[in-house]
Specification:
heterodimer; A: mainly beta; Porin; twelve-stranded antiparallel beta barrel; two-stranded antiparallel sheet; 2 helices; about 5% helix; B: mainly alpha; Globin-like; globular
Chain lengths: ~270, ~140
Amino acid sequence: MRNWQARLAVLALFMPLMVQADSRLLATGGASSIEGQAGGGIAPWAVISGYGDVGEWGGALALGRVSVDDFQLDVQSVSVGLENTLEFSVSRQDLEVAPLGLNIRQDVFGAKARLAGDLIYGALPQLTAGLQYKRNRDMGVPLALGAARDSGTDLYLAAGKLWLNGVLGRNVFANGTLRWTAAHQTGLLGFDEQRELVAEGSVGVFLNRHWVIGAEYRQKPDQLQSVTEDDWADMFVGWFPNKRFAAVLAWTELGDIAGLASQSGWYLSLQLSQ
Amino acid sequence: MPRFLYLWLWLTLLVTGCTGQPERGDSLYAQLGGEAGVDRIVAGLLWEIAEDAETRALFVDTDIKRFRDKLAEQLCAVTDGPCVYTGDSMRETHRHLQVTSAQFNRLVSSLIRVMEQEQIAVGAQNALLQRLAAMHGDIVAE
């Protein structure tokens, strides 16, 4: 909690210097990932949440649900983007484990800083460094499966680029993220002592400025002895009717989770943004 | 899961193939509607600028008649139309204006709105945006 209060204090210091405005182009704030940061569904992107440009601030509120064979994950998140340079986020995850009739909850506190480049302009892609501090609140199942810790911090570097007129007259987006993580199943099954390096990638094609179709892949560590952890993938359709609202619908394949085989199903995210 | 990604690639090609055939052979200038089309885009953009206090601030000392002519000429030249741009360089014209990233993006949004009103095909819109985006470094103050 101290962490979050410190962040609020930083925000409070910055905010009077900026105006809340939305000068950036439609969809350039991305959607809200399951870990609360601007991104796709399963991977954080190099973009900063909301539509605030330099001299402005913006942000997003999002509700997400992943519904696969034996699990349902509900996510509520809020993120603030400052100066198109810094992003802070909080999200609460609630995983319903249907076969056991129990829930595993986790909080994720995120921060991101844009280091260089720009999503659209110039040769260099937008480069961002980020972290996610995660705290698992229901360690019964994770401990039973052999997890060592109840909290952990993921560190990552992300590069994102939008190519105007990229393919067949369409704008094309790609993002790559390198993540250093000790989390089992993003932390919902706890954390290991050791971090591992994993890669995540997203691509999307904008059919027009409101509709994007894409796919994501997220490599996962597989550090629990007791159960297998698989890589994740999804195929998504994103709708950005305006800068206030976005919806993402995806089909997702999450592989084995906590001993339950080949979990696949739907993902829906609804986002309000500024 | 390569099977999954192949499926996505096929779907993408299918959908983009169906929704937007680039008009082969026609210059971008022709796709924008030629001289009349470019004039309508420039006129629409001037209305958008007039309505947006943020970008309007950049034009307080601008000779609007000259701006309109030079912008039309530049759009014609940059889209492979039969024009030669005779105005000053982008770097020169924006040097003293301290154009912000926000102002640049607002103008791009305005241009997109105008092109949508003019029912310019998505591929032609993106092609023009790509060519204009290349000028970002000369226009926006660091």
